[in-house]
Structure formats: C-alpha cells, structure tokens
Amino acid sequence: MPKYKKWKRKRPHIIRLWSKWLVAGTAVLILLFIGIGLLTGAKTTYRLYSDTIQEWTTQLKGSSFIYLFEMENRTFSGAHPDENRIPGLSTLAFKLLTSLTPNDPRSLLGREIPGLSFYNSQIIIAGEGTNFATLPIESEPPLDVDHKGEEGEVEEKQQDSPEGNQTIKEDRVFISHTHNTESFYPHLPDRSTAYDGKVNITLVGKRLAESLENQGIGAMVDYTDVASLLKQKGMKHYQSYDAMRPLIKEAKSQNESLQYYFDLHRDSLPRENTTVNIGGKEYARFIFVIGAEHSQYEQNLKFASDMHKLLESKYPGISRGVITKKGSGVDGVYNQDLDPNLIVVEFGGVENNLDELYRSADVMAEVFSEYYFNAEKVSNDS
C-alpha cells in the first residue's frame, strides 16, 4: 500500500509576519496623526467642542449608557429597563451620525412638519396620561384682546388660615404671568378666542398668593399686562419672556426676601387631559415646564421634580409631570436662568373653570408650604 507524505502546515516566515504588523501599525499611526491634525488645525467653526459631543450623545437613550457602566461595574446589570435589549453598534452609530432614532418617526418628521415643535420637549417625569401626544400646546393670541370674560358664580371660596400659620413673613414667592391674557372658555361668551383681558390666568395667580398667605408664606403678584407691553414696544408674541425678564430682575433686586418664582400659564389641551377627579371634586391639573437651554437648568428641574412628587403623594393624578424644552420653536430658557427656583407651571387648560382652578391653586399652596417649611427647617438646622 503506497505511503503518502503527511501534510504539514507551513509556518509563516518570521520576517514576513513582522512586516505585516509593521505596515498595519504604521497605517494606524498615520491615520491617527491625520485625525489629530484635522481636529487641531481646522478652523474654529469645524472643531469639536464639548457641547458638540454632548449634542451627539443626547441622541442616545439613557438606558444605552447602563451597558457602558456595566462593563466597569457588574452591579449595573440589575438596572436594565424591562424588556430592553442591548443596542447594537450599528444602531448606536446610526443615531450618532443621523440624529434619527429607528422605529421613531418623530425624530425625522418632528423637525420638518410645521406645528411639531413640541418634539423639542423631553418628558422627564410622566404623570398619568402624559406622552408626546398630550404635551402642553401654546397658541398665539390675537393682536387685540377683548375684555368680555365674566367670572360668574364661584363656589370655591377662599379657605381660612390654618392654626399655627397665622404669621405672615416677608414676601418669599413671586408670581408672574408671562402670557397674562390666557383665559378659559367657560368664562367667555363664545369659543372664538381663548384670550381675555379681564378673566384670565392672573386670577389664578391672585388666588395662589392668597392661599400662600393663608399658609403663612408672603407672596407678591405681578399683574403686568405683558400683551399690551409687547404691542407698545413693537415686539412679537414669542418675545414675551424677553419683555417679562426686566420685571423679574427688578423684583429680585428690590425684594431680597424673594426665594421662589412661579410663572403661571394655561394649557390649550382639552378638558380630559387637564382635569382630574379627586374625592368627588374636579381639579385642574398641573404640568411643570423647564427650559434646558441654560447651564444651571438642572437646579430648576430639581425644584419642579420635588414639587411633582410631593403633589402626587398627597393628590394622586393632579400633576401631569415634568418636561424640559429646548431647540428651535421654543424659548428654551423661560427666564429660569435668573433663579434656580424659577419654574413655569401650566395650570389646567382652556376648558377648565375657575372653581377647578382655585381648588388646584389651594392645593399648590398647601403642598408648597410643606416643601417650603421643610426646606427652611433644614436650612436652620444646618
């Protein structure tokens, strides 16, 4: 039987092997130096800064970063959201390069279709029923606002001061109304407009101040007719916050005791989204809006989040949640860079009546007083 020579695998020549590694290493170094040269030698317009990288990473969901943390600390393996699989490298690269999110048409259409500027909102805390279809809607008022609104019979009378909180301290809260003519259909002669110069959101601000004082907290209310101010100065509706800004700064400079700032608004969503029944009574719901286009917005966000949680613990369902806004089509700051305790609060909606709004104003005062006095106690103890 013929014998066959056993085949042996040839071992690569040592010189040839090292040559391949040398060429590969040289190519990597060349590409590295080219990249560094492009980044450092390019015009400032094209350089990458930290805010550019931040803009890229905002396209990623927070859950994606949990997998990165898990690589360093296995404890994070228990923090994965339910039914959430690890994102593939192709998915992450696609999000970073295109700013589009697969299976989410809003990421493509939200910046292209007029009227979808609310896409720039981010839901930080979602209350009951809150999603991208039920975010606050802002409509521009007419050039001329009538004074045809009527308060009517208001059953929800102002409550007496609780015992032990009779002493009114200095003014601690400043209440403003940047869109002061925002009104409510139940108090208007018809639905031709949702704005009025007499019966509007300022009445809610007045009730909130009275309720705060009943809780022992001094409050100052600004009744500036911002709509008329805009008209006098030839400014547009989107410049309302610019018109309100010097008024807030003046209040801060002349009243050093002020610590908290509430800018009250009225949403344009229908009644089913802005009303909740608690204990057999109808209440107007709140939603907190924070502008994310200033460096310290997280402080404002913490205040709003704390208020949401405290409201929900006492009156479940009354808060629609907390959202942030930034980007084109929105103000993005809302004067909240002036103070870490300045927040925008949407009080109810266009179909709520004053009874429902006043009940909610009393609730806000009650819950905020608990927050305020707890914070004051902690401050005194420290």
Description of the structure:
The chain is α/β, with parallel strands linked by helices. Among the domains are: 50-103, no CATH class; 171-381, Zn-dependent exopeptidases (Aminopeptidase, 3-Layer(aba) Sandwich), CATH 3.40.630.40. Helices cover 39% and strands 14% of the residues. A seven-stranded mixed beta sheet has the order 1-8-7-9-4-2-3. It has a two-stranded antiparallel ribbon with strand order 5-6. Helix 10 links the parallel strand 7 (286-291) and strand 8 (319-325). Helix 6 (201-214) packs across helix 11. It is elongated and about 100 Å long. The termini are far apart. Residues 43-49 have low confidence and may be disordered. Residues 137-167 are annotated as: Disordered. Pfam families: SpoIIP. This is Stage II sporulation protein P.
Notable traits:
Stage II sporulation protein P; two-stranded antiparallel ribbon; 382 residues; alpha/beta; Spore_II_P
How far apart are the first and last residues' alpha carbons, in Å?
A: 98 Å
Supply the helix-strand structural class.
Answer: alpha/beta
Low-confidence segments, ≥5 residues, pLDDT <50?
A: 43-49
Write down the overall geometry: elongated
